Amino acid sequence: MTNETAPKTARLSLGDQEIELPVMVGAEGEMAIDIRKLRAQTGAVTFDPGLGNTGACTSNITFLDGEKGILRHAGYPIEELANQSSFLEVMWLLLHQELPLKTELDSFTHDITHHTMMHEDLKRLFASLPKAGHPMAVCAAAVGALSTFYQKEGPKTPEQNWIDAIRLLAKMPTIAAYCYKHSIGQPLMYPRNDLSYAANLLYMMFGTPCEAYEPNPVTARALDLLLILHADHEQNCSTSTVRTVGSSGANLFSSVSAGISALWGPLHGGANQAVIEMLMSIRDGERSAREFMELAKQKDSGVRLMGFGHRVYKNYDPRAKILKSACDDVLGQLGKRDPLLDIAQELEQIALEDSYFVERKLYPNVDFYSGIIYKALGIPTDMFTVFFAIGRMPGWISQWLEFQADPDKRITRPRQIYTGATPRSYQKVEGR
Ligand code: CMC
Protein backbone atom coordinates (compact mmCIF):
# COMPACT_ATOMS: atom_id res chain seq x y z
CA MET A 1 0.00 0.00 0.00
CA THR A 2 1.30 3.49 -0.80
CA ASN A 3 0.03 6.96 0.01
CA GLU A 4 -1.40 7.08 -3.54
CA THR A 5 -3.15 3.68 -3.52
CA ALA A 6 -4.33 3.62 0.09
CA PRO A 7 -7.81 4.88 0.94
CA LYS A 8 -7.66 8.41 2.36
CA THR A 9 -10.24 7.79 5.05
CA ALA A 10 -12.04 5.00 6.87
CA ARG A 11 -15.79 5.36 7.40
CA LEU A 12 -17.19 4.44 10.77
CA SER A 13 -20.86 4.06 11.29
CA LEU A 14 -21.95 4.12 14.93
CA GLY A 15 -25.71 4.08 15.45
CA ASP A 16 -27.03 7.00 13.44
CA GLN A 17 -23.61 8.68 13.35
CA GLU A 18 -21.29 8.34 10.38
CA ILE A 19 -17.74 9.70 10.62
CA GLU A 20 -14.65 9.69 8.45
CA LEU A 21 -11.33 8.88 10.06
CA PRO A 22 -8.03 9.75 8.34
CA VAL A 23 -5.84 6.86 7.15
CA MET A 24 -2.07 6.97 7.62
CA VAL A 25 0.42 4.95 5.58
CA GLY A 26 3.87 4.06 6.89
CA ALA A 27 7.10 3.95 4.88
CA GLU A 28 6.70 0.19 4.30
CA GLY A 29 3.04 0.43 3.34
CA GLU A 30 1.40 -0.46 6.66
CA MET A 31 -1.95 1.26 7.12
CA ALA A 32 -3.33 2.82 10.27
CA ILE A 33 -6.64 4.48 11.03
CA ASP A 34 -6.01 7.71 12.90
CA ILE A 35 -8.52 7.70 15.76
CA ARG A 36 -7.18 10.70 17.66
CA LYS A 37 -10.49 12.55 17.25
CA LEU A 38 -12.72 9.49 17.71
CA ARG A 39 -13.76 10.16 21.28
CA ALA A 40 -14.33 13.85 20.71
CA GLN A 41 -16.51 13.10 17.68
CA THR A 42 -18.46 10.06 18.94
CA GLY A 43 -17.96 9.71 22.71
CA ALA A 44 -16.61 6.19 22.09
CA VAL A 45 -13.12 4.82 22.69
CA THR A 46 -11.47 1.74 21.18
CA PHE A 47 -10.94 -1.48 23.14
CA ASP A 48 -7.67 -3.34 22.50
CA PRO A 49 -6.28 -5.22 25.51
CA GLY A 50 -2.57 -5.92 24.98
CA LEU A 51 -2.63 -3.18 22.29
CA GLY A 52 -2.10 -5.72 19.50
CA ASN A 53 -4.00 -3.51 17.02
CA THR A 54 -2.82 -0.14 18.24
CA GLY A 55 -0.04 2.01 16.83
CA ALA A 56 1.08 4.16 19.74
CA CYS A 57 3.69 6.23 17.91
CA THR A 58 5.46 6.79 14.62
CA SER A 59 9.10 5.74 14.55
CA ASN A 60 12.08 5.88 12.16
CA ILE A 61 14.12 3.27 14.00
CA THR A 62 12.99 -0.29 13.33
CA PHE A 63 10.67 -2.00 10.88
CA LEU A 64 9.41 -5.51 11.28
CA ASP A 65 7.04 -7.55 9.17
CA GLY A 66 5.81 -10.43 11.25
CA GLU A 67 4.13 -12.27 8.40
CA LYS A 68 7.29 -12.34 6.28
CA GLY A 69 9.78 -12.61 9.15
CA ILE A 70 11.57 -9.35 8.30
CA LEU A 71 13.50 -7.15 10.72
CA ARG A 72 15.33 -4.01 9.56
CA HIS A 73 16.93 -1.17 11.49
CA ALA A 74 16.62 2.13 9.58
CA GLY A 75 16.32 0.06 6.41
CA TYR A 76 19.28 -2.27 7.04
CA PRO A 77 18.34 -5.99 7.24
CA ILE A 78 19.25 -7.66 10.53
CA GLU A 79 21.04 -10.43 8.60
CA GLU A 80 23.49 -7.92 7.06
CA LEU A 81 24.08 -6.15 10.36
CA ALA A 82 24.64 -9.49 12.13
CA ASN A 83 27.18 -10.58 9.51
CA GLN A 84 29.04 -7.36 8.88
CA SER A 85 28.50 -4.80 11.61
CA SER A 86 29.48 -4.41 15.26
CA PHE A 87 27.35 -3.69 18.31
CA LEU A 88 28.79 -0.19 18.64
CA GLU A 89 28.01 0.60 15.02
CA VAL A 90 24.45 -0.71 15.47
CA MET A 91 24.12 1.50 18.56
CA TRP A 92 24.96 4.52 16.43
CA LEU A 93 22.61 3.36 13.67
CA LEU A 94 19.70 3.14 16.11
CA LEU A 95 20.51 6.48 17.70
CA HIS A 96 20.91 8.35 14.38
CA GLN A 97 19.13 6.08 11.88
CA GLU A 98 22.21 6.36 9.65
CA LEU A 99 25.41 4.32 9.60
CA PRO A 100 28.32 6.31 11.04
CA LEU A 101 31.23 7.68 9.04
CA LYS A 102 34.59 6.28 10.14
CA THR A 103 35.36 9.48 12.09
CA GLU A 104 31.95 9.38 13.78
CA LEU A 105 32.34 5.74 14.78
CA ASP A 106 35.85 6.39 16.13
CA SER A 107 34.71 9.31 18.23
CA PHE A 108 31.59 7.45 19.45
CA THR A 109 33.73 4.43 20.37
CA HIS A 110 36.06 6.74 22.26
CA ASP A 111 33.16 8.29 24.18
CA ILE A 112 31.57 4.96 25.07
CA THR A 113 34.94 3.55 26.10
CA HIS A 114 35.73 6.50 28.37
CA HIS A 115 32.49 6.51 30.36
CA THR A 116 32.68 2.89 31.50
CA MET A 117 33.68 3.53 35.11
CA MET A 118 30.99 3.91 37.75
CA HIS A 119 30.92 6.31 40.67
CA GLU A 120 32.58 4.55 43.63
CA ASP A 121 29.59 5.31 45.87
CA LEU A 122 27.35 3.17 43.68
CA LYS A 123 29.22 0.10 44.92
CA ARG A 124 27.45 0.52 48.25
CA LEU A 125 24.14 -0.09 46.54
CA PHE A 126 25.33 -3.51 45.37
CA ALA A 127 26.74 -4.29 48.81
CA SER A 128 23.38 -3.51 50.43
CA LEU A 129 21.38 -6.03 48.36
CA PRO A 130 21.10 -9.79 49.10
CA LYS A 131 23.60 -11.88 47.12
CA ALA A 132 20.82 -14.27 46.14
CA GLY A 133 18.68 -11.45 44.72
CA HIS A 134 17.94 -11.91 41.02
CA PRO A 135 20.47 -9.89 38.98
CA MET A 136 17.66 -8.27 36.97
CA ALA A 137 16.32 -6.69 40.18
CA VAL A 138 19.83 -5.52 41.10
CA CYS A 139 20.38 -4.20 37.58
CA ALA A 140 17.10 -2.24 37.55
CA ALA A 141 17.98 -0.75 40.95
CA ALA A 142 21.49 0.25 39.83
CA VAL A 143 20.31 1.86 36.59
CA GLY A 144 17.57 3.73 38.45
CA ALA A 145 20.15 4.86 41.00
CA LEU A 146 22.25 6.48 38.24
CA SER A 147 19.62 9.25 38.24
CA THR A 148 20.86 10.30 41.66
CA PHE A 149 24.41 10.79 40.36
CA TYR A 150 23.43 12.72 37.25
CA GLN A 151 20.43 14.72 38.36
CA LYS A 152 19.35 18.21 37.44
CA GLU A 153 16.41 20.38 38.38
CA GLY A 154 13.80 20.41 35.61
CA PRO A 155 13.99 18.88 32.15
CA LYS A 156 17.39 18.22 30.58
CA THR A 157 18.50 19.72 27.28
CA PRO A 158 19.00 17.40 24.27
CA GLU A 159 22.78 17.73 24.81
CA GLN A 160 22.44 16.63 28.44
CA ASN A 161 20.21 13.74 27.41
CA TRP A 162 22.85 12.67 24.87
CA ILE A 163 25.55 12.59 27.57
CA ASP A 164 23.22 10.52 29.75
CA ALA A 165 22.71 8.16 26.81
CA ILE A 166 26.49 7.73 26.41
CA ARG A 167 26.86 7.15 30.16
CA LEU A 168 24.17 4.51 30.21
CA LEU A 169 25.48 2.65 27.16
CA ALA A 170 29.02 2.77 28.55
CA LYS A 171 28.22 1.82 32.15
CA MET A 172 25.70 -0.94 31.47
CA PRO A 173 28.36 -3.68 31.05
CA THR A 174 30.02 -2.47 34.27
CA ILE A 175 26.68 -2.61 36.10
CA ALA A 176 25.91 -6.06 34.67
CA ALA A 177 29.29 -7.44 35.68
CA TYR A 178 28.94 -5.90 39.16
CA CYS A 179 25.56 -7.65 39.53
CA TYR A 180 27.29 -10.96 38.84
CA LYS A 181 30.42 -10.36 40.91
CA HIS A 182 28.30 -9.27 43.85
CA SER A 183 26.20 -12.44 43.60
CA ILE A 184 29.27 -14.70 43.82
CA GLY A 185 31.15 -12.61 46.37
CA GLN A 186 34.10 -11.73 44.14
CA PRO A 187 35.76 -8.31 43.95
CA LEU A 188 34.21 -5.91 41.46
CA MET A 189 36.53 -5.46 38.47
CA TYR A 190 37.20 -2.04 37.00
CA PRO A 191 36.65 -1.76 33.24
CA ARG A 192 39.60 -2.06 30.86
CA ASN A 193 39.41 0.63 28.23
CA ASP A 194 41.89 -1.11 25.91
CA LEU A 195 39.34 -3.85 25.21
CA SER A 196 36.34 -3.89 22.89
CA TYR A 197 32.84 -3.45 24.37
CA ALA A 198 32.14 -7.21 24.44
CA ALA A 199 35.67 -8.22 25.50
CA ASN A 200 35.61 -5.72 28.37
CA LEU A 201 32.28 -7.13 29.52
CA LEU A 202 33.77 -10.65 29.55
CA TYR A 203 36.83 -9.35 31.40
CA MET A 204 34.72 -7.70 34.10
CA MET A 205 32.57 -10.83 34.42
CA PHE A 206 35.30 -13.45 34.54
CA GLY A 207 38.55 -11.68 35.42
CA THR A 208 39.82 -11.46 39.00
CA PRO A 209 42.55 -9.25 40.50
CA CYS A 210 44.65 -12.37 41.20
CA GLU A 211 45.68 -13.30 37.69
CA ALA A 212 45.74 -12.09 34.12
CA TYR A 213 42.61 -12.76 32.09
CA GLU A 214 42.44 -12.31 28.35
CA PRO A 215 38.95 -12.66 26.83
CA ASN A 216 38.71 -15.27 24.08
CA PRO A 217 38.14 -13.44 20.74
CA VAL A 218 35.68 -16.15 19.59
CA THR A 219 33.63 -15.60 22.75
CA ALA A 220 33.80 -11.81 22.36
CA ARG A 221 32.62 -11.97 18.73
CA ALA A 222 29.75 -14.34 19.63
CA LEU A 223 28.72 -11.99 22.41
CA ASP A 224 28.84 -9.00 20.06
CA LEU A 225 26.54 -10.90 17.68
CA LEU A 226 24.07 -11.63 20.51
CA LEU A 227 24.05 -7.96 21.48
CA ILE A 228 23.41 -6.87 17.87
CA LEU A 229 20.48 -9.27 17.58
CA HIS A 230 18.85 -7.87 20.72
CA ALA A 231 19.52 -4.19 19.97
CA ASP A 232 15.97 -3.08 19.15
CA HIS A 233 12.61 -4.57 18.35
CA GLU A 234 10.26 -1.60 17.99
CA GLN A 235 7.32 -1.29 20.42
CA ASN A 236 7.78 -4.43 22.52
CA CYS A 237 6.70 -4.51 26.17
CA SER A 238 9.90 -3.07 27.68
CA THR A 239 10.36 -0.41 24.98
CA SER A 240 6.74 0.69 25.34
CA THR A 241 7.39 0.88 29.07
CA VAL A 242 10.43 3.08 28.53
CA ARG A 243 8.40 5.39 26.28
CA THR A 244 5.47 5.40 28.71
CA VAL A 245 7.60 6.30 31.72
CA GLY A 246 9.45 8.90 29.63
CA SER A 247 6.11 10.39 28.58
CA SER A 248 5.56 11.66 32.12
CA GLY A 249 8.80 13.66 31.90
CA ALA A 250 10.81 11.11 33.92
CA ASN A 251 14.54 11.08 33.14
CA LEU A 252 16.33 8.56 30.93
CA PHE A 253 17.77 6.47 33.80
CA SER A 254 14.39 6.05 35.54
CA SER A 255 12.63 5.26 32.27
CA VAL A 256 15.20 2.61 31.33
CA SER A 257 15.15 1.14 34.83
CA ALA A 258 11.41 0.55 34.36
CA GLY A 259 12.17 -1.03 30.98
CA ILE A 260 14.60 -3.45 32.64
CA SER A 261 11.85 -4.49 35.06
CA ALA A 262 9.44 -5.05 32.17
CA LEU A 263 12.04 -7.12 30.33
CA TRP A 264 12.51 -9.44 33.30
CA GLY A 265 9.13 -11.16 32.91
CA PRO A 266 9.18 -14.69 31.44
CA LEU A 267 6.84 -13.74 28.59
CA HIS A 268 9.40 -11.16 27.45
CA GLY A 269 13.20 -11.21 27.98
CA GLY A 270 13.00 -13.57 30.96
CA ALA A 271 12.09 -16.26 28.42
CA ASN A 272 15.79 -16.85 27.66
CA GLN A 273 16.39 -18.08 31.20
CA ALA A 274 13.08 -20.00 31.17
CA VAL A 275 14.07 -21.79 27.93
CA ILE A 276 17.28 -23.17 29.40
CA GLU A 277 15.47 -24.24 32.57
CA MET A 278 12.86 -26.00 30.41
CA LEU A 279 15.56 -27.77 28.35
CA MET A 280 17.41 -28.78 31.51
CA SER A 281 14.25 -30.23 33.04
CA ILE A 282 13.84 -32.40 29.93
CA ARG A 283 17.53 -33.36 29.95
CA ASP A 284 17.27 -34.32 33.62
CA GLY A 285 14.38 -36.66 32.88
CA GLU A 286 11.55 -34.73 34.52
CA ARG A 287 9.54 -35.56 31.39
CA SER A 288 10.37 -36.40 27.78
CA ALA A 289 10.30 -33.83 24.98
CA ARG A 290 7.05 -35.31 23.65
CA GLU A 291 5.41 -35.33 27.07
CA PHE A 292 6.46 -31.71 27.56
CA MET A 293 4.97 -30.72 24.22
CA GLU A 294 1.67 -32.39 25.07
CA LEU A 295 1.57 -30.41 28.31
CA ALA A 296 2.40 -27.14 26.51
CA LYS A 297 -0.73 -27.61 24.39
CA GLN A 298 -3.01 -27.93 27.41
CA LYS A 299 -4.16 -24.46 28.45
CA ASP A 300 -4.83 -25.38 32.08
CA SER A 301 -1.37 -26.98 32.55
CA GLY A 302 0.20 -23.55 33.02
CA VAL A 303 3.07 -24.79 30.82
CA ARG A 304 4.14 -23.03 27.62
CA LEU A 305 6.82 -23.91 25.14
CA MET A 306 9.19 -21.14 26.16
CA GLY A 307 11.06 -19.39 23.35
CA PHE A 308 8.15 -20.06 20.99
CA GLY A 309 5.48 -17.72 19.70
CA HIS A 310 5.49 -13.99 19.23
CA ARG A 311 2.92 -11.20 19.20
CA VAL A 312 4.17 -9.90 15.84
CA TYR A 313 6.03 -12.76 14.11
CA LYS A 314 3.70 -15.29 12.54
CA ASN A 315 6.71 -16.78 10.80
CA TYR A 316 10.24 -17.76 11.84
CA ASP A 317 11.79 -14.91 13.87
CA PRO A 318 14.77 -13.83 11.70
CA ARG A 319 16.88 -13.44 14.83
CA ALA A 320 16.16 -17.04 15.84
CA LYS A 321 17.23 -18.20 12.37
CA ILE A 322 20.60 -16.45 12.77
CA LEU A 323 21.02 -17.75 16.31
CA LYS A 324 20.20 -21.33 15.35
CA SER A 325 23.07 -21.45 12.89
CA ALA A 326 25.31 -19.43 15.26
CA CYS A 327 24.76 -22.17 17.88
CA ASP A 328 26.50 -24.72 15.66
CA ASP A 329 29.29 -22.28 14.74
CA VAL A 330 30.00 -21.08 18.27
CA LEU A 331 29.83 -24.52 19.88
CA GLY A 332 32.08 -25.84 17.08
CA GLN A 333 34.62 -23.03 17.43
CA LEU A 334 34.71 -23.39 21.20
CA GLY A 335 34.96 -27.19 20.86
CA LYS A 336 31.83 -27.74 22.96
CA ARG A 337 28.85 -30.07 22.62
CA ASP A 338 25.64 -29.40 24.44
CA PRO A 339 22.85 -31.99 24.67
CA LEU A 340 20.46 -29.05 25.28
CA LEU A 341 20.92 -28.11 21.61
CA ASP A 342 19.70 -31.57 20.56
CA ILE A 343 16.68 -31.24 22.87
CA ALA A 344 15.90 -27.76 21.50
CA GLN A 345 16.06 -29.09 17.94
CA GLU A 346 13.82 -32.02 18.87
CA LEU A 347 11.23 -29.66 20.42
CA GLU A 348 11.34 -27.44 17.35
CA GLN A 349 10.88 -30.42 15.04
CA ILE A 350 7.88 -31.66 17.02
CA ALA A 351 6.36 -28.16 16.98
CA LEU A 352 6.85 -27.68 13.25
CA GLU A 353 4.90 -30.91 12.59
CA ASP A 354 2.17 -30.44 15.20
CA SER A 355 -1.10 -28.84 14.10
CA TYR A 356 -1.44 -26.96 17.44
CA PHE A 357 1.74 -24.95 16.75
CA VAL A 358 1.30 -24.83 12.96
CA GLU A 359 -2.27 -23.46 13.11
CA ARG A 360 -1.32 -20.82 15.68
CA LYS A 361 1.81 -19.92 13.68
CA LEU A 362 4.09 -20.49 16.65
CA TYR A 363 7.77 -20.49 15.67
CA PRO A 364 11.03 -20.15 17.62
CA ASN A 365 11.69 -16.60 18.77
CA VAL A 366 14.98 -14.91 19.68
CA ASP A 367 15.03 -16.52 23.11
CA PHE A 368 14.83 -20.14 21.92
CA TYR A 369 18.47 -20.58 20.87
CA SER A 370 20.19 -17.60 22.53
CA GLY A 371 20.49 -19.32 25.92
CA ILE A 372 22.45 -22.22 24.43
CA ILE A 373 25.04 -19.74 23.14
CA TYR A 374 25.13 -17.80 26.42
CA LYS A 375 25.67 -21.10 28.22
CA ALA A 376 28.51 -22.05 25.85
CA LEU A 377 30.12 -18.66 26.56
CA GLY A 378 30.02 -19.44 30.28
CA ILE A 379 27.33 -16.89 31.15
CA PRO A 380 25.38 -18.05 34.23
CA THR A 381 21.69 -18.78 33.59
CA ASP A 382 20.28 -16.04 35.78
CA MET A 383 22.43 -13.47 33.95
CA PHE A 384 20.91 -14.28 30.53
CA THR A 385 18.21 -11.63 30.80
CA VAL A 386 20.74 -9.06 32.03
CA PHE A 387 22.68 -9.70 28.82
CA PHE A 388 19.46 -9.17 26.86
CA ALA A 389 19.15 -5.83 28.69
CA ILE A 390 22.70 -4.82 27.67
CA GLY A 391 21.76 -5.61 24.09
CA ARG A 392 18.42 -3.80 24.22
CA MET A 393 19.92 -0.66 25.81
CA PRO A 394 20.54 1.24 22.52
CA GLY A 395 16.98 0.43 21.43
CA TRP A 396 15.45 1.74 24.64
CA ILE A 397 17.59 4.88 24.54
CA SER A 398 16.95 5.59 20.84
CA GLN A 399 13.21 5.17 21.33
CA TRP A 400 13.25 7.38 24.43
CA LEU A 401 15.18 10.12 22.59
CA GLU A 402 12.89 9.81 19.57
CA PHE A 403 9.86 10.20 21.84
CA GLN A 404 11.32 13.31 23.48
CA ALA A 405 11.79 14.95 20.07
CA ASP A 406 8.33 13.95 18.76
CA PRO A 407 6.09 17.00 18.19
CA ASP A 408 3.03 14.74 18.67
CA LYS A 409 4.18 13.44 22.07
CA ARG A 410 1.67 13.33 24.89
CA ILE A 411 1.69 11.66 28.27
CA THR A 412 0.62 8.02 27.85
CA ARG A 413 -2.76 7.70 29.46
CA PRO A 414 -5.06 5.02 28.04
CA ARG A 415 -8.79 4.89 28.69
CA GLN A 416 -10.68 1.95 30.17
CA ILE A 417 -14.13 0.41 30.01
CA TYR A 418 -15.39 0.49 33.56
CA THR A 419 -17.13 -2.78 34.54
CA GLY A 420 -17.49 -2.32 38.32
CA ALA A 421 -20.48 -1.44 40.50
CA THR A 422 -22.77 1.41 39.50
CA PRO A 423 -23.51 4.19 42.08
CA ARG A 424 -24.59 3.01 45.53
CA SER A 425 -24.71 4.59 48.99
CA TYR A 426 -22.05 4.18 51.63
CA GLN A 427 -23.10 2.20 54.71
CA LYS A 428 -21.29 2.32 58.04
CA VAL A 429 -19.39 -0.89 58.87
CA GLU A 430 -21.86 -1.79 61.67
CA GLY A 431 -24.74 -1.83 59.22
CA ARG A 432 -23.16 -3.93 56.40
N1 CMC B 1 3.30 -22.43 23.97
C1 CMC B 1 2.04 -22.91 23.84
N2 CMC B 1 1.01 -22.19 23.35
C2 CMC B 1 1.27 -20.93 22.97
C3 CMC B 1 2.54 -20.36 23.07
C4 CMC B 1 3.58 -21.17 23.59
N3 CMC B 1 4.83 -20.68 23.71
N4 CMC B 1 2.50 -19.08 22.64
C5 CMC B 1 1.24 -18.86 22.26
N5 CMC B 1 0.48 -19.97 22.46
C6 CMC B 1 -0.94 -20.14 22.11
C7 CMC B 1 -1.85 -19.45 23.10
O1 CMC B 1 -2.25 -20.34 24.13
C8 CMC B 1 -2.99 -19.03 22.22
O2 CMC B 1 -3.80 -20.16 21.96
P1 CMC B 1 -5.43 -19.97 21.71
O3 CMC B 1 -5.55 -19.13 20.47
O4 CMC B 1 -5.92 -21.35 21.56
O5 CMC B 1 -5.94 -19.28 22.93
C9 CMC B 1 -2.33 -18.66 20.90
O6 CMC B 1 -1.14 -19.45 20.87
C10 CMC B 1 -1.97 -17.18 20.80
O7 CMC B 1 -1.18 -16.85 21.94
P2 CMC B 1 -1.28 -15.51 22.75
O8 CMC B 1 -0.79 -15.76 24.13
O9 CMC B 1 -2.65 -14.92 22.59
O10 CMC B 1 -0.27 -14.62 21.94
P3 CMC B 1 0.37 -13.28 22.41
O11 CMC B 1 0.70 -12.53 21.20
O12 CMC B 1 -0.52 -12.59 23.40
O13 CMC B 1 1.68 -13.74 23.21
C11 CMC B 1 3.87 -14.50 23.65
C12 CMC B 1 2.93 -13.79 22.65
C13 CMC B 1 5.30 -14.31 23.17
C14 CMC B 1 3.73 -13.86 25.03
C15 CMC B 1 3.51 -16.00 23.70
O14 CMC B 1 3.68 -16.58 22.43
C16 CMC B 1 4.31 -16.75 24.74
O15 CMC B 1 3.92 -16.79 25.91
N6 CMC B 1 5.47 -17.38 24.36
C17 CMC B 1 6.32 -18.03 25.32
C18 CMC B 1 7.20 -16.99 26.04
C19 CMC B 1 8.28 -16.44 25.15
O16 CMC B 1 8.99 -17.17 24.48
N7 CMC B 1 8.47 -15.12 25.19
C20 CMC B 1 9.49 -14.42 24.40
C21 CMC B 1 8.88 -13.56 23.34
S1 CMC B 1 10.01 -13.01 22.06
C22 CMC B 1 11.27 -12.11 22.76
C23 CMC B 1 10.90 -11.13 23.77
O17 CMC B 1 9.94 -10.35 23.64
O18 CMC B 1 11.58 -11.07 24.78
Give a structural overview.
- This protein has 432 residues and is mainly α.
- It folds into 3 domains: 9-70, Rubrerythrin, domain 2; 78-235 and 251-264 and 386-398, Citrate Synthase, domain 1; 271-376, Cytochrome p450-Terp, domain 2, CATH 1.10.230.
- It is 50% helix and 6% strand.
- It is built from 18 helices and 6 strands.
- Helix 6 packs antiparallel against helix 7 (158-184).
- The radius of gyration is 23 Å and the shape is globular.
- Carboxymethyl coenzyme *A is lined by residues 50, 236, 267-269, 271, 296, 304-311, 360, 362, 365-367.
Question: Topology, pairings included?
Answer:
Elements: E1 9-14, E2 17-25, E3 31-33, H1 38-42, E4 62-65, E5 70-73, E6 76-77, H2 78-84, H3 87-96, H4 102-113, H5 123-127, H6 135-149, H7 158-184, H8 197-206, H9 217-229, H10 237-247, H11 252-264, H12 271-283, H13 289-297, H14 318-333, H15 339-353, H16 355-359, H17 366-376, H18 384-404
Antiparallel strand pairs: 1-2, 2-3, 4-5, 5-6
Helix pairs in contact: 3-18, 6-7, 6-11, 7-8, 7-18, 8-9, 9-14, 9-17, 9-18, 10-11, 10-18, 11-18, 12-15, 12-17, 14-17
This protein binds carboxymethyl coenzyme *A.
Residues 50, 236, 267-269, 271, 296, 304-311, 360, 362, 365-367 line the site of carboxymethyl coenzyme *A (CMC).
